[in-house]
Design a protein that fits this description.
The complex is a heterodimer of chains A (about 120) and B (about 140).
Chain A (H helix, E strand, L loop, with lengths): L7 E2 H7 L3 E4 L7 E2 L1 E4 L3 H7 L4 E5 L4 H9 L4 E4 L7 H10 L2 E4 L4 H10 L11
Parallel strand pairs in A: 4-5, 5-6, 6-7
Antiparallel strand pairs in A: 1-3, 2-7
Chain B lengths: L4 E8 L8 H12 L4 H22 L1 E8 L3 E8 L7 H5 L8 H4 L8 H8 L2 E7 L3 E9 L2
Antiparallel strand pairs in B: 1-2, 2-3, 3-5, 4-5
Bound molecules: adenosine-5'-diphosphate (ADP) and magnesium ion.
């Protein structure tokens, strides 16, 4: 696994984003290597590496499926979006932590970036 | 050479929310077989994009997976509208998806290019008005 400029744990990301942990309490000490902010799942499927964190304003089960296919370990719903139980259940069964932050996409990504979390090296978006 | 493991999935064309069920299950099976995680990831992404395509463009279909000792074969078969210009459909960013699909996070025109990128072989057989079969191979050795 490629090391980012600075890897952080899901717990650290949650703290930076003042995020509420909706599921995956037991996964918070996992390391994340990079992050991606997008509402287009096909872009995520094209560019992202494993062990990343996905920030999105999109609220449907395909967000979880996308993260699952990509071996991503954490989803952050921005703008205070509250996923329903079906989404959380899917995330639990896939071993994905789900967070929720009041920050909007730009600010949420900016906070993680400023803390040293970088996109994957080959990623241009 | 032993027989491949074959799994067939019905892909429901009426239910976008449950699209991806087949890919999730295939991924679970590949994990149980202990295949390399990067190979599993590539196969799962390609299958998932294909499954989404069957749901959003072709009213569903059938996904046949065959796991051989040296490769994973995925055949996605639908009886949807077919693809009039495959070369155009394969180009990055080309999409006929409606606005409501984009609101769901798909329709960026990256599906077929992604499927090609993540697999070792991909062929599309299609006939307008009859349907489409996408065959993909991911080598495991
Ligand atoms: N199974 C299919 N049946 C009919 N048309 C398809 C199918 N798969 C793809 N297409 C066509 O090819 C285009 C490009 O597909 P894709 O790259 O997956 O992008 P997207 O799904 O985002 O539109 C689609 O917009 C659609 O017109
Ligand atoms: Mg597609």
């Amino acid at each position: 696994m490629r090391k980012g400029l600075m890897d952080m744990t899901i717990r650290e990301a949650a703290a930076l984003l003042d995020a509420e942990v909706l599921c995956g309490e037991d996964l918070l000490d996992r390391e994340i290597a990079s992050a991606c902010g997008s509402d287009m799942m096909s872009d995520v499927l094209a560019f992202v590496k494993e062990h990343s964190i996905l920030l999105t304003g999109l609220l449907n089960p395909q967000v979880v499926r996308t993260a699952e296919m990509m071996d991503m370990s954490c989803i952050v719903f921005v703008r205070g979006k509250q996923p329903g139980e079906a989404i959380l259940e899917l995330a639990r069964s896939s071993g994905i932590a789900v967070l929720r932050t009041e920050y909007r996409m730009y600010a949420a990504c900016g906070k993680l970036y400023a803390a040293g979390l970088r996109p994957h090296a080959s990623e241009k978006i | 050479m032993s027989e491949p493991i074959r799994i067939t999935y019905e892909v429901d064309g009426e239910d976008f929310m449950s699209a991806g069920t087949a890919s999730t299950d295939m991924k679970r099976v590949l994990r149980q077989l202990g295949l390399d995680s990067e190979i599993i990831r590539r196969a799962a992404i390609a299958m998932y994009e294909g499954e989404i395509n069957m749901v959003i463009h072709a009213h569903g279909g059938v996904a046949e997976v065959a796991i051989y000792e040296d490769r994973i074969e995925m055949n996605l078969i639908d009886h949807g509208p077919g693809i009039p210009d495959v070369e155009l459909a394969m180009s990055a960013g080309y999409s006929t998806a409606a606005e409501n699909i984009r609101e769901l996070g798909f329709g960026a025109g990256m599906g077929l290019p992604n499927m090609k990128k993540y697999t070792d072989e991909m062929t599309i057989e299609t006939e307008v008005g009859k349907g489409t079969t996408v065959r993909m191979v991911v080598r495991t050795v």
